[in-house]
From TrEMBL, chain A:
<dbReference type="Pfam" id="PF02653">
    <property type="entry name" value="BPD_transp_2"/>
</dbReference>
<dbReference type="InterPro" id="IPR052157">
    <property type="entry name" value="BCAA_transport_permease"/>
</dbReference>
<keyword id="KW-1133">Transmembrane helix</keyword>
<keyword id="KW-0472">Membrane</keyword>
<dbReference type="GO" id="GO:0005304">
    <property type="term" value="F:L-valine transmembrane transporter activity"/>
</dbReference>
<dbReference type="GO" id="GO:0015192">
    <property type="term" value="F:L-phenylalanine transmembrane transporter activity"/>
</dbReference>
<feature type="transmembrane region" description="Helical">
    <location>
        <begin position="281"/>
        <end position="300"/>
    </location>
</feature>
<dbReference type="GO" id="GO:1903806">
    <property type="term" value="P:L-isoleucine import across plasma membrane"/>
</dbReference>
<feature type="transmembrane region" description="Helical">
    <location>
        <begin position="64"/>
        <end position="82"/>
    </location>
</feature>
UniProtKB/TrEMBL annotation, chain B:
<dbReference type="InterPro" id="IPR027417">
    <property type="entry name" value="P-loop_NTPase"/>
</dbReference>
<dbReference type="Pfam" id="PF00005">
    <property type="entry name" value="ABC_tran"/>
</dbReference>
<keyword id="KW-0067">ATP-binding</keyword>
<dbReference type="InterPro" id="IPR030660">
    <property type="entry name" value="ABC_branched_ATPase_LivF/BraG"/>
</dbReference>
<dbReference type="InterPro" id="IPR003439">
    <property type="entry name" value="ABC_transporter-like_ATP-bd"/>
</dbReference>
<dbReference type="GO" id="GO:0016887">
    <property type="term" value="F:ATP hydrolysis activity"/>
</dbReference>
<protein>
    <submittedName>
        <fullName>ABC transporter ATP-binding protein</fullName>
    </submittedName>
</protein>
<keyword id="KW-0813">Transport</keyword>
<dbReference type="InterPro" id="IPR052156">
    <property type="entry name" value="BCAA_Transport_ATP-bd_LivF"/>
</dbReference>
Length: 307, 239
């Protein structure tokens, strides 16, 4: 079996998920300069809501496609409301406060949401109900599944849709204008609060979809899963240049590939000293290197001009 | 018969922390008039405009526009009332195209046909903008950005146009060009408040003028009289 090709495929799938989550960080950062550290928890809640809704509907005898569809809709709705409320309740009152204040609040919200999830869903690992019959394909000695194809496809479509929204609609134009100069955008009649809320809501929908993907892919979920996922997606956003949409997409894919290839070869590289379960270190090595040598990221601007 | 002023500012005060930037100024603008507000660096001109455009809250005073108190209105509501600002330093959106910047000017409007007509009008005033329609605004020269900022303000079909130092940092020939357009817009009947350090140009283009010093209005008159006022000539016209 070809390890390289295999890891590229795995990395691509994982990277697509990172990219979806990274977009939530980057959109909010681009518009208001805030790192919403609770975003990973929004994704986690998306996964857990899907599990609850789908499991319930399947038990009630709904067909799989309907249960799955309703699970996704429920996750997206809950995450939208959650993202919107986070901004409304936690961040909006801190507008104009020193930058550290909302940052600490974001970390606080992340902890609050984790604990809330623990209270609702408990401390145990939960299995994601199987929605799709897995089939394997082979290409050049590497294997991939229909689930992987579906994840990449849905991620691609969602990101395409986001780009259309941001670059082809009036709301998108208002979002870009607000990111570049909020004061003047206000003079043009843009209600900054609406734009900021939209960024949170859109980012949360993408996060919910990513949450469903994670569930379908790994078939397991836990109230703490959002933490590491969020941190890695944040790394991806920084890698691409935080505030930059294309950067978040590219950064996500790239990080997925680095991790997968790193995990595939780490044993050989360290003479067997470190195993593939050390794959998490790659994300943080990347984060440290980016912050040291290119803090503006691959696609970032040097100055404060964002989005 | 004298028409009711479009804008009446009374006792307007602006402060930054303990610093009094505007100390209770009173002035008005009649419909169809171009009024110049001149003064040295730090006199409080921009602060006055920021209060008018609601980008900052004054500590006191009233701003009545079309007979209605607007001192509490949020900034994004002003443009719907017909007030457009061309901010100091232009404030174009650097990573939007010129066409998008102009579309932002019409953000609150949905009368598609009229917007298209206004766009043609703006492109008529500034042909250079049309040539560069698809270019990012950040790549424009300072003068072109000033044209864009004025064009963008006009795209909202304002009743009152507030201009903050349109000549700032521009070569004399570009200043002439910008002022030519400002005079054209004024001749079409637009009501304009023009803030300038280039006092001669401002007064030559305006009907009336106010002179601002250390946050206070110290002199007001017909623009032509101010141009001949010895104090103004000495302090602002370099004679
Ligand atoms: N954000 C701010 N914080 C503190 N003080 C300020 C601020 N903005 C302006 N000031 C002060 O308020 C006073 C008036 O400034 P303002 O910008 O209104 O002057 P101006 O007449 O527009 O000057 P210029 O011709 O240089 O643009 C100045 O003393 C300035 O230092
Ligand atoms: Mg000024």
């Amino acid at each position: 079996m070809d390890i390289f090709l295999q890891q590229v495929i795995n990395g691509l799938v994982q990277g697509a998920i990172y990219a979806m989550v990274a977009l939530g960080y980057t959109m909010v950062y681009g518009i208001m300069g805030l790192i919403n550290f609770a975003h990973g928890e929004v994704v986690m809640i998306g996964t857990l809501v899907t599990i609850t809704v789908v499991t319930f509907l399947l038990k009630a005898g709904f067909p799989v496609w309907l249960a799955g569809g309703m699970g996704i809709v429920a996750a997206a709705s809950v995450c939208m409301v959650l993202g919107w409320s986070l901004e409304r309740v936690a961040y909006r009152p801190l507008r104009g406060a020193p930058r550290l204040t909302p940052l600490i609040t974001a970390i606080g919200m992340s902890i609050v949401l984790q604990n809330l999830a623990m209270m609702i869903w408990g401390r145990n690992y939960m299995t994601f109900p199987s929605l799709i019959e897995k089939t394997q394909f082979e290409i050049g000695g590497a294997a991939f599944t229909n689930v992987q194809v579906l994840i990449v496809l849905v991620a691609g479509l969602s990101m395409g849709g986001l780009l259309l929204l941001v670059y082809r609609t009036k709301l998108g134009m208002a979002m870009r204008a607000t990111a570049q100069n909020p004061g003047v955008a206000g003079l043009m009649g843009v209600n900054a609060n609406r734009v900021i809320s939209s960024a949170f809501v859109i980012g949360s929908v993408l996060g919910a979809l990513a949450g469903v993907m994670v569930g379908v892919y790994y078939e397991i979920a836990h109230y703490q899963m959002g933490f590491m996922l969020g941190l890695k997606a944040f790394t991806a956003a920084v890698l691409g240049g935080i505030g930059n949409l294309a950067g978040a997409m590219a950064g996500g894919i790239l990080l997925g590939l680095i991790e997968a290839l790193g995990a595939g070869y780490i044993g050989d590289l360290t003479g067997g000293f470190l195993g593939s379960h050390y794959q998490d270190i790659f994300a943080f090595v990347v984060l440290i290197f980016v912050l040291m040598f290119r803090p503006s990221g691959l696609f970032g601007e040097k100055t404060g001009d964002r989005a | 018969m004298v028409a009711e002023p479009l804008l009446i500012v009374e006792g307007l005060r602006v402060a930054y922390g303990g610093i009094q930037a505007v100390r209770g100024i009173t002035f008005h603008i009649n419909p169809g008039e171009m009024v110049a507000l001149i003064g040295a660096n730090g006199a409080g001109k921009t602060s006055t405009l920021k209060a008018l455009s609601r980008m900052l809250d004054p500590v006191g005073g009233s701003i009545r526009y079309q007979g209605q108190e607007i001192v509490k209105l949020p900034p994004h509501r002003l443009v719907r009332e017909g007030i457009a600002l061309v901010p100091e330093g232009r404030g174009v959106f650097p990573r939007l195209t010129i066409a998008e910047n102009l579309a932002m000017g019409a953000f609150t409007r949905d009368d598609k046909a009229d917007i298209a007509a206004d766009l043609e009008h703006v492109y008529g005033l500034f042909p250079r903008l049309k040539e560069r329609e698809k270019q990012l605004a950040g790549t424009l020269s300072g003068g072109e950005q000033q044209m864009l900022a004025i064009g963008r303000a006009l795209m909202s079909r304002p009743k009152l146009l507030l201009l903050d130092e349109p000549s700032m940092g521009l070569a004399p020939i570009m200043v002439q060009k910008i002022f030519e357009v400002i005079r054209m817009v004024a001749a079409e009947g637009m009501t304009i408040l023009l803030i300038e350090q280039n006092a001669r140009l401002a007064l030559e283009s305006s009907q009336r003028g106010y002179v601002m010093e250390s946050g206070e209005i110290t002199l007001t008159d017909e623009a032509s009289s101010l141009l001949h006022n010895p104090k103004v000539r000495e302090a602002y016209l370099g004679e």
